[in-house]
What does this fold into?
Amino acid sequence: MNRIPSQEIIPEDADSRVFNLYEKKEKIYIRKMEGLFQTVRQYTGWPLLLGYFLAPWLHVDGHQAILFDLPERKFHIFWLTLWPQDFVLLMWVLAIAAFALFFVTTLWGRVWCGYTCPQTIWTAIFMWVEQITEGERHQRINLDKIPSIFHRDGRNRAGWNKFWRRGLKHGMWLGFALLTGVTFIGYFYGMRELVGEALSWQLSLTAVSWSVFFTLATYINASWLREHVCIYMCPYARFQSAMFDHDTLIISYDEKRGETRGARKRNIDYKGQGLGDCIDCTLCVQVCPTGIDIRDGLQYECIGCAHCIDACDSIMAKMGYAKGLISYTTENKLAGGEWTWKRPKLIGYGGALLVMLLLFTIVLLTRTPLRLDVLRDRGQLFQQVDGGRIENVYTLKIINMDRVDHEYQLSVHGLPDAMLVPDSTIRVAAGEINDALVRVRVDPDQLEDFVTEFEFEIEALTDEEDGGALRARAESRYIGPRPLPN
It folds into this structure.
């Protein structure tokens, strides 16, 4: 007997909205807004933007201030030159950056996204271009309703107006994206060399290809994807909730003060009509770059840009109400509690960050700009030379990571009465690698075993007033004849 499935009873007050996961998202028309926090964003965004474009043109100690020279395997960061052997420093930097992000997020929420994230800054520039070419929000909405010049009914003056405005907008977008892409390549190629070769039409295909790639990537991210990068592609939006607590700074709507929403005239007793401070103007939604309604509560799409705060404060000022209906606050404050920094998560992140900063500083200050690598000749175990001695051959790779030339004296430790051939100093220019072939001769009667562990040491012949002597050691093995049993 077939059973008839029972019908689910839906309460009358249940939300009956239906969401289509494959529905095309409506285009967001962002309204221009000015205010306190938008001024703060200019003071944080413009220095980063100018620093990005100007840093490759600066020169320090004869090289570009910031240059990641991949062919030479050198990474110049102002007065510091890092080599692949300094990879541990990169690991320290990444770990410090991660814990700094955890600490800042736990304390101040998504201030990184709202004020310093490159996606936010570049998108703001592209939106500014859109506003000066197509007009304000209502003008852009009306412009989208005009048929294009390629439409059968669109060959009119309005269609051509739309065509040239859109063309100017995309041209400016591509120009700024090209400037961004070329600058990014300049950090790896050398900015002056890149521009010089481009002006003389001698730029390599590799440089052209990467410049085009990053130009298109910038154009697509900042012009077409925009909020989709923050909502769907950025992993930070997904795991931020793991760092939030009840005292994390968030942007929130004061529901107790704002509800019930409703339109009203100024200077009336709106509280007597059962209304809250929110006049339901939806201006906070119109200025949101991700298109959310902050009055619905905290949402992972919120990037903490504070557009809604400035918008709401401007309306509150016009209505004669107190500002702060939408504000930076915490869940504890909204519930009537007090903010506190004494939180295990915040203290843990802060303590770990301080320890890593201290250790990184020690490693950086005690870093020796000298590296010695030893490769033993594997063609033969050993050979006998005049005088009854035996000989092992080694190739020494000396890396001078300093900014000045050095002469190094070579010695060995752990081998009895060892003789070096040639026994002379080795000169290595600044920032260069020198391969030296060295023969080590030892009396076989003084070797206690078939294999003897020992160390090479190089020491820079430098006066202390020039920076002090630099030393580096490298382990190796010396192979001789197997000793006869007693």
Notes: The CA atoms of residues 420 and 481 lie 19 Å apart. The mean pLDDT is 87.
